[in-house]
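Anyone up for a design puzzle?
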């Protein structure tokens, strides 16, 4: 009796191996004759097919390998402005005066307005009046005190600022800057006609593809005269400052008073399955700094710089300039695509797999929501008892003469 279970186990192992090698299992297919279910199934399949073909392959070009752009930008500004004031007299302003610094990283600043303080030297002078500097006697001033907004170091004396106001004396660059009143109209209102040449070179390393925004069809003669226009000349890389600001929906003379930040966007979307000549830049403009009429604290864009000199007697002096202007940030973005078999096969496989959604959706509706769901469930599933339990019961009956 001890040998029979061992022999039976060996037979079952052989039977399992036989079934694995020589038998084939397939899912059970039930054909449901229902107009509602059939129509819904085809409708879902049609939506999936439209998504795969229309969106994945046509719109998103799922058959292509893609790469992101690598870019470099240089700029050159041209233009001359003329001013005639009692403070400075008749003066010409050229690129060396109003472009600060001469070269930036993907950006250029063009001065449009300024507050200038001439011939400052390090000396003693009265501080500008405010609630911390107005005084009545020397007791109100602290020697060596430097406030957050101070122009210098207090000496401890209280001196006349004008005929009506007294302030604490400071050691600083004197006379101190008075920046309460910003020139309006802007000092360099002729900046509206300044032009900006943008030279942009791009590279898609994955495809070893390079190009410039100065297209091969552009020659030197054309470049000297062209000005960018979205409708008539969309590929000219020379932009008039006023036109850029107006294209962003802003008023140039208003923006020039306190300055601001403009964005010049260059978009390179290239289909490298087509001719290289069709890979061209697209330009757009927007104002980046938020100008909200309801929130006017610290608007615009400005900074200070100075030009230093030394007189014949060795005394150092400087000209201080608070510059307001328009900073143009040049932002380059885009991608290139080219046919590749790997993404094509991946997207085809993903699309075919999506067709299983139609079957799952129809099964859920048929088996759980339709009136005849119990009838369909009977036809869908075949319930089979555990084969091992049946085999053991049959073996026990034969062994003990039918007595369990």
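Challenge accepted. My sequence:
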């Amino acid at each position: 009796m001890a040998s029979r279970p061992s022999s039976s186990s060996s037979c079952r192992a052989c039977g399992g191996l036989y079934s694995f090698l020589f038998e084939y299992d397939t899912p059970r297919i039930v054909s449901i004759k229902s107009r509602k279910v059939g129509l819904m199934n085809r409708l879902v399949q049609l939506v999936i097919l439209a998504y795969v073909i229309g969106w994945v392959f046509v719109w998103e070009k799922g058959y292509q390998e893609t790469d992101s752009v690598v870019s470099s930008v240089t700029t050159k500004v041209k233009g001359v402005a003329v001013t005639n004031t009692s403070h400075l007299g008749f003066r010409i302003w050229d690129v060396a005066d109003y472009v600060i610094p001469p070269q930036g990283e993907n950006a250029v600043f063009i001065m449009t307005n300024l507050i200038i303080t001439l011939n400052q030297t390090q000396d003693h002078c009265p501080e500008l009046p405010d609630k911390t500097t107005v005084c009545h006697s020397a007791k109100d001033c602290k020697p060596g005190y430097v406030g957050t907004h101070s122009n210098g170091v207090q000496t401890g004396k209280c001196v006349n600022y004008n005929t009506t106001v007294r302030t604490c004396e400071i050691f600083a660059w004197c006379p101190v800057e008075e920046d309460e009143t910003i020139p309006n109209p802007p000092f360099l209102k002729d900046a509206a006609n300044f032009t900006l040449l943008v030279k942009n070179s791009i590279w898609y390393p994955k495809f070893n593809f390079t190009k410039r925004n100065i297209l091969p069809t552009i020659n030197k003669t054309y470049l000297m005269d062209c000005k960018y226009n979205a409708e008539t000349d969309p590929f000219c890389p020379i932009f008039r400052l006023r036109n850029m600001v107006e294209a962003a929906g802003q008023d140039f003379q208003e923006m020039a008073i306190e300055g601001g930040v403009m964005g010049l966007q260059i978009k390179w979307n290239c289909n490298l399955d087509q001719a290289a000549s069709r890979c061209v830049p697209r330009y757009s403009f927007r104002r980046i700094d938020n100008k909200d009429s309801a929130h006017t604290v610290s608007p615009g864009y400005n900074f200070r710089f100075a030009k230093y000199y030394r007189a014949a007697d060795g005394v150092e002096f400087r000209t201080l300039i608070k510059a307001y202007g328009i900073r143009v940030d040049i932002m380059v973005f885009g991608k290139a695509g080219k046919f590749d078999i790997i993404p094509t096969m991946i997207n085809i496989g993903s699309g075919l797999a999506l067709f299983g959604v139609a079957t799952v959706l129809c099964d859920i509706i048929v088996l759980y929501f339709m009136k005849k769901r119990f009838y369909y469930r009977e036809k869908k599933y075949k319930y089979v008892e555990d084969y091992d339990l049946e085999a053991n019961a049959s073996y026990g009956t034969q062994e003990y003469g039918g007595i369990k």
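A detail worth pointing out: The two ends are 16 Å apart (CA to CA).
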